[in-house]
Design brief:
By secondary structure, the chain is an alpha/beta fold. It folds into 2 domains: about 5-270, 3-Layer(aba) Sandwich (Rossmann fold), CATH 3.40.50.150; about 280-328, no CATH class. The chain contains 13 helices and 11 strands. The strands form 2 sheets. It has a 7-stranded mixed β-sheet with strand order 3-2-1-4-5-7-6. Helix 7 (about 145-155) packs across helix 11. The chain starts with a helix and ends in a 14-residue tail after the last strand.
């Protein structure tokens, strides 16, 4: 699927996605920003930024934010949310930013298995000491939105259903690690965080879910109303008359680092070795003189002392002329 086509799908109901769905990921946004040390002056780019909610949260931390998404309608909302940000509609497989432009790159459920070129682009636009963080769906057993995804697969063409299953495979152990390594990253840390969708009633929940990109193929196949009716059937049992719907799901997250960064750090600050203490020198009598001869590398010089000398004087290294000082 070309990025323009994906953008049309995600942007068809941009306002409903931005205000009814996107806030569910806020806990994941905040967790990743904490891990990456996002703060005042951080230059951050959010890849597949949607309507810019995550970027706006980063801006409130003091970051200088940019974002890219395939949907022009979502980018329009991002620009209103954060007027001083740099938001562009485009292809995450070919980011419109220069090399080494950012300190931090993020992507919240925007990069999946099969999107390795996007990870390589993130690596390209980061400075040598840059940080990268991304999220994806976690354990299927903790995916509260599973009834929605099952309906998407049920009513979609076979090809789209298979693609949805493959995206869910991103969180399987070893998959995202391989994606990162192929792009030049090295995994530093991996974990999970819970996110919660909150809606006052089934009708609002259906509107929100129908605005998500995965809903486009089933709606094209059976129609908007039929798909919404199908969603209402599986969501109604989850709704409480007093509190509405609260559906919890698990996000996985990773925090990798670039090998180039670790190499540079090691080159600038090599691991120091503990300073070895020399062995205690041995004093020997030798023809009216006392000669101190050490056994360690700091004692390759000999010190001669006569009783008539007011203080010790250094002689040169063995074999040197008297009065010549050896190397320090």
């Amino acid at each position: 699927m070309a990025w323009e086509e994906a953008g049309r799908g995600w942007g068809a109901r941009a306002a409903e996605w931005a205000y009814l769905f996107e806030p569910y990921a806020r806990s994941a946004n905040e967790r990743v920003f904490e891990l990456l040390g996002v703060g005042t002056g951080t230059r951050l780019v959010d890849i597949a930024c949607g309507s810019g909610l995550a970027a706006n949260l980063a801006r409130r931390r003091g970051a200088e934010v940019s974002g890219i998404d395939a949907a022009e309608a979502l980018i329009a909302i991002a620009r209103v949310r954060t007027p001083d940000g740099d938001f562009r509609a485009g292809d995450m497989f070919s980011l419109p930013f220069d090399d080494e432009s950012f300190d931090v790159a993020t992507s919240f459920n925007g990069i999946w298995k099969g999107c390795e070129p996007a990870v390589r682009q993130a690596h390209r636009v980061l400075v040598a000491r840059g940080r990268f963080g991304m999220t994806f769906w976690g354990s299927f057993e903790r995916l509260g939105l599973m009834p929605y995804f099952l309906k998407v697969i049920e009513h979609s063409p076979t090809s789209h259903g298979a693609a949805s299953i493959e995206q869910g495979d991103t969180g399987r152990s070893g998959v995202v690690e391989e994606m990162l390594e192929s792009a030049g990253f090295r995994l530093l840390q991996r974990g999970s965080v819970d996110v919660v969708n909150e809606w006052p009633d089934v009708h609002t929940a259906v509107r929100a879910l129908a605005a998500a990109g995965p809903s486009v193929p089933p709606m094209e196949a059976i129609g908007y109303d039929a798909f919404c009716d199908s969603l209402s059937e599986v969501l109604a049992p989850l709704c409480d008359d007093d509190i509405g719907l609260r559906i919890s799901s698990e996000f996985g997250w990773v925090r990798p680092r670039s090998p180039e960064h670790s190499d540079r750090v090691n080159a600038v600050a090599p691991r120091s070795r503990p300073r070895e203490r020399p062995a205690r020198p041995v004093s020997r009598s030798h023809g009216g003189r006392r000669r101190r001869v050490g056994s360690g590398p700091r004692h390759t010089r000999r010190t001669l002392r006569r009783s008539s000398w007011p203080r010790r004087r250094r002689a040169g290294t063995p074999g040197a002329r008297p009065g010549c000082r050896g190397p320090r």
